[in-house]
Amino acid sequence: MSTALTTATDALTVSAWRDYDPEACALPGMFLGAIELTGPAGEESDRLWESGARRVQLREPVDLTDLTAPGAAVRAVRTLSLVRDLTARAVLVEWNLRLDPEAPDDTWRALSHLQPPGSLHGPGDAAGDLRRWREGHYLCKCLWRQGPGFVQIRDRRWGELRRFTAEEPEYQQVIAALTYGAPAASVPAAVLADFLEERLVLQVGDLAWWLPYRVNRWIQEAMAI
Question: What pTM, to 2 d.p., does this model score?
Answer without folding.
Answer: 0.91
